[in-house]
Amino acid sequence: MATLILVRHGQSTWNASNRFTGWVDVPLNHVGREQAIAAAQKISVYPVKVAFTSLLMRAMETAAICLTEGGGVLSGKSPVFKHDADDPDWHGWDLYDGDHSQEIPIFPVQALDERNYGQLQGFNKEEMALKVGAEKVHQWRRSYSTRPPGGESLEDTVARTVPFFRDRILTHLMAGESVLVAAHGNSLRAVIMHLDQLTPDQVVNLELATGVPIVYEIDPQGNVTDKTILT
User: Fold this and answer.
1) Domain of 93: which CATH number?
2) Would you say the C-alpha torsion 58, 152, 130, 138 has a positive or negative sign?
3) Banded model confidence at residue 71, pLDDT cuts 50, 70, 90
């Protein structure tokens, strides 16, 4: 039996100002860092062996805090970010194999990035509702298949996130390794849609709070046996 821990990143500077963020790379604010520390304490009893995060700073910060501030069984292990050697800015990151007895590898991947909000990114949500109408903004935010201008739908996010989850993350879980995933509201909604077998109509109503861990127990066949939200 293995444990999967999903954590939406802590509050970012743009969450606090109610702006569409998407792929814009903004950091956590003070509240977000405190939320990540609280999440770290809650998950400290779980023996995380490997972690995955998006390429965006707010998720990477959350992952690092969750694996350095928890104490307990994680004490003494350092998280190490394992970057893609195909990155054009490669600096020989893959030349170090690592020591899993002393370290927890964190893999940043594009598949876990937030939904791309396209031309909405940077705009205040309430101001955009006044500009184009609340119904249109609600459709862009909550429809399963409608894309905002120049952006992705939730369906698009599911199409890139779930295959990665099946191919990479579930493999670790079925091998008995507990996994932390620090990502975003929409990429995690995609994962939860798969795990909980939600319909498109059900997943659009799913809300994830920042910094609140969701813990799944996964059996060797990849089936969910238990789910707990650590509020």
Assistant:
1) 3.40.50.1240
2) negative
3) low
Query: Any residues with CB less than 8 A from the CB of 208 and at least 6 apart, and which?
Result: 8, 185, 188, 189, 192, 214
Among residues 34, 83, 114, 207, the one annotated as catalytic is 114
Strand partners, 84: none
Which helix H or strand E contains 126, and what residues bound it?
helix 125-132
Segment 51-72 mean pLDDT:
92
Q: Is 222 left (phi over 0), alpha (psi -120 to 50) or beta?
A: left
Phi-psi region of 92 (alpha: psi -120 to 50; beta: other; left: phi over 0): left
Active site (annotated) includes residue 207: no
Boundaries of domain holding 7: 2-229
Q: Which residues of 1-10 are buried (b: 16+ CB within 10 A; e: fewer)?
A: ebbbbbbbbb
CA 200 from centroid of its chain's CA atoms = 19
**DSSP E strand stretches across the chain:** 2-8, 48-53, 78-81, 103-108, 178-183, 213-218, 224-229
For the question of residue 9 being annotated catalytic, the response is yes
Is the pLDDT reported for residue 86 higher than 80? no
Rounded Cα gap, residues 215 and 209, in angstroms: 14
Among 9, 172, 184, 194, the active-site one is 9
Average pLDDT over residues 134-138: 92
Mean pLDDT along residues 69-92? 75
Tally of domains within the chain: 1
| pTM given for the model | 0.95
